[in-house]
Amino acid sequence: MAIIDHHEAAVDGGDLVLSEATARDYFELLKPRVMSLVVFTALAGLVLAPGHINPIIGVIALLCIAVGAGASGALNMWYDADIDAVMSRTAKRPIPSGRIRPREALAFGLTLSAFSVAILGLAVNWLSAGLLAFTIFFYAVIYTMWLKRSTPQNIVIGGAAGAFPPMIGWACVTGGVSVESIVLFLITFLWTPAHFWALALFKMKDYADVGVPMLPNVAGEKTTKHQIMIYAVLTAIISVVPSCLGFASLGYGIFAAAMGAAFVWYSVGVLRMPEGDRAMVPAKKLFAYSIFYLFAIFAGLMIDRALMAAGWSL
Amino acid sequence: MEMVTLSDKQKKSRRGRNIALAVVLAALVALFYVITLVKIAGGMVG
């Protein structure tokens, strides 16, 4: 046993480990950028759902959804630490860089998962808590542990995890799931493949190095470009559906159609990209635009709802 | 028994983690307090 300033030291594999991890390192485990997208889409679910929720309970619901999403990010980083260490995009994450030990990340992720689900259930309702628990399970177990390393369709199915937050937000207000909340789910679900495969195209070498079967590595660039095109078209179509179903105005529909047309146009740019193009500028442009697109669509839905409430809508 | 002295960086990071944990625990107490108030007020209105 070693005595460190009157505290016991952690012993890992016989070696004394003195942590230099900061609170910021733990925050980084939560994947804050992904969390911001989750919070934003969950907020859209809360705003668009019919009915009323106490604003304080609404903020607590968002906090729980954000922490739950962060927890699944921490569990993902715990499991993927071996491949994160090899890929340039992820090598500086807290675990591969040695700032946080894997079992600390695991404990952190499990604790936050349990607290976020329990508090959402106690404060809001148990359906939304159940959906949040399923989302964490889906991302950490179904996607990270199973699909990611076994099939090129990993992010198509795994994309469901990122698509659940607006449905959870909706369930927080209504206590149920409806066609409208499924449409909100489908917007992110169908958007994910085009978004992620654009990234996979220009990070192909990284994924090949770690043996993750991303579509460009398994099926080739040509097939990936066609698949991106198909999903971009599907995303553009589903984004207009809220107007068709009447829970968004015609004005939103026109906006979504224009945004969707641009999404398809950027995908056409990727389709025309020559095979073996090293710079892959069109794929990088599509990736950047896809992030902007999703924020714009959900922002558009919320603004539209505010305008409808004020009687200014088309 | 081996004696180990923490470096300044290790002491600083440990202090930072402790403060963050204290803030989270205090926030959790406040959160449960607020949830209780809202639930009680909602029950009275109902």
What tags apply to this protein structure?
heterodimer, A: 314 residues, mainly alpha, Tetracycline Repressor, domain 2, two-stranded antiparallel sheet, two-stranded antiparallel ribbon, 13 helices, B: 46 residues, 1 helix
Short description:
The complex is a heterodimer of chains A (314) and B (46). Chain A is 74% helix and 4% strand.
Topology readout:
The complex is a heterodimer of chains A (314) and B (46).
Chain A: E1 2-4, E2 7-8, E3 10-12, E4 15-17, H1 23-29, H2 32-48, H3 55-79, H4 81-84, H5 102-123, H6 126-147, H7 154-174, H8 179-202, H9 204-210, H10 215-219, H11 221-245, H12 250-271, H13 281-310
Antiparallel strand pairs in A: 1-2, 3-4
Chain B: E1 2-4, H1 8-45
Q: Describe it for me?
A:
The complex is a heterodimer of chains A (314) and B (46). Chain A is built from 13 helices and four strands. Chain A is mainly alpha-helical. In chain A, α2 runs antiparallel to α3 and α8 packs antiparallel against α13 (281-310). Chain A is flat, with a radius of gyration of 21 Å. The model of chain A has no long low-confidence stretch (mean pLDDT 92). By secondary structure, chain B is mainly alpha-helical. In chain B, 83% of the residues lie in helices and 7% in strands. Chain B contains one helix and one strand, in the order βα. β1 (2-4) of chain A pairs parallel with β1 (2-4) of chain B, so a sheet runs across the interface.
Task: Supply the number of structural domains of chain A.
Answer: 2
Please tally the β strands of chain A and state the result: 4
**What is the CA-atom radius of gyration of chain B, in angstroms?**
20 Å
Question: Which pair has the most extensive contact?
Answer: A-B, 23 and 23 residues
Helix fraction bin of chain A: over 70%
The CATH class of the largest domain in chain A is identified as Mainly Alpha
Per the principal axes of the C-alpha atoms, what is the gross shape of chain B? Answer: rod-shaped
Q: How are strands sequenced across the largest beta sheet of chain A?
A: 1-2
Low-pLDDT regions of chain A = none
Largest sheet of chain B: none
Instruction: Please count the beta strands of chain B (DSSP E, at least 2 residues each).
Output: 1
Q: Compute the average pLDDT of chain A.
A: 92
Taken in chain order, the helices and strands of chain B follow as EH
Q: Average pLDDT across residues of chain B?
A: 88
* Strand portion of chain B: 5-15%
Cα distance spanning the termini of chain B: 64 Å
Query: Alpha-carbon distance between the termini of chain A?
Result: 73 Å
CATH superfamily of the largest domain in chain A: UbiA prenyltransferase
